[in-house]
Design a protein that fits this description.
This protein has about 180 residues and is an alpha/beta fold. The chain has one domain: Glutaredoxin (3-Layer(aba) Sandwich). It is built from 7 helices and 7 strands, in the order βββααβαβαααββα. The strands form 2 sheets. It has a 5-stranded mixed sheet. A two-stranded antiparallel sheet has the order 1-2. β4, α3 and β5 form a beta-alpha-beta unit. α1 crosses α6. The radius of gyration is 15 Å and the shape is globular.
Length: about 180
C-alpha cells in the first residue's frame, strides 16, 4: 500500500492540470474501470450529485480511468471534477490497483450491475463492447493529504466496492482528516 504520494501534475481530459497532492485540500483519488462502465457511471453520478458537500468538506475529487481521453470524452459531460485518462495503467500499477475476475464474479456486485445496466439503458449509454484495459478492473479510493500522506485507502473487492459519499465524509469529519488543511 502506498503511504506517501509524491507531488505530480496529472492532466485531465479537459486539459486542466491537476496537482496531486493538492497543496490546499484533501484529494479523493478514485480509480475506476473503463470509459462507459455502467457501474462506474452509476457511482460517479452519485458523487456528482453531492459534489458541493464534498467540496465544502475540503476535498477535491479526482477520478482516474484506464481509458484514453478520446474514449472518456463522451462519458464525462456534467461531471464537476477532474477525470484523468491512464490507458497504459501506469498510475494503477504505482498505486497497486488490480484487475481480477472477482470484479464481476463476486455476488455482492450483481445487484449493482443490474441497477447500473438499467441506468445505462435509460440514459442510452450502454457499456462499450470491448473496453480499453478490459472489464475486470477493480476500483480503489485514496484520501491524500496536502503533504502527500495517505490516511485512508480502500481497495475494492469487486466492481461496485468503493466509498460512498457518506463514507468519504465520515472519514473526513469523524476521523479529523481536515486537521491542518486550510
Amino acid at each position: 500500500m502506498i503511504e506517501i504520494v509524491p507531488a505530480r501534475e496529472l492532466v485531465a481530459v479537459s486539459g486542466e492540470s491537476v496537482p496531486v497532492p493538492d497543496p490546499d485540500r484533501l484529494v479523493h483519488l478514485q480509480f475506476r474501470r473503463f470509459a462507459g462502465c455502467p457501474v462506474c457511471n452509476l457511482h460517479l453520478h452519485s458523487i456528482a450529485r453531492r459534489h458541493a458537500e464534498i467540496t465544502a468538506a475540503g476535498v477535491r475529487e479526482v477520478v482516474i480511468f484506464h481509458s484514453s481521453a478520446d474514449e472518456l470524452r463522451p462519458h464525462i459531460d456534467g461531471l464537476p471534477f477532474a477525470v484523468i485518462p491512464d490507458p497504459a495503467k501506469r498510475l494503477y500499477a504505482e498505486f497497486g490497483v488490480e484487475s481480477a475476475p472477482r470484479a464481476l464474479l463476486d455476488p455482492r456486485v450483481w445487484p449493482v450491475i443490474i441497477a447500473a445496466v438499467f441506468r445505462a439503458l435509460r440514459t442510452g449509454q450502454p457499456a462499450p463492447p470491448r473496453p480499453e484495459g478490459g472489464r475486470l478492473g477493480l476500483p480503489a479510493d485514496f484520501l491524500i493529504g496536502p503533504d502527500g500522506r495517505v490516511p485512508a485507502v480502500r481497495y475494492g473487492k469487486h466492481a461496485g466496492d468503493q466509498w460512498t459519499v457518506d463514507e468519504l465524509l465520515a472519514l473526513v469529519y469523524r476521523d479529523g482528516l481536515l486537521d491542518g488543511v486550510q
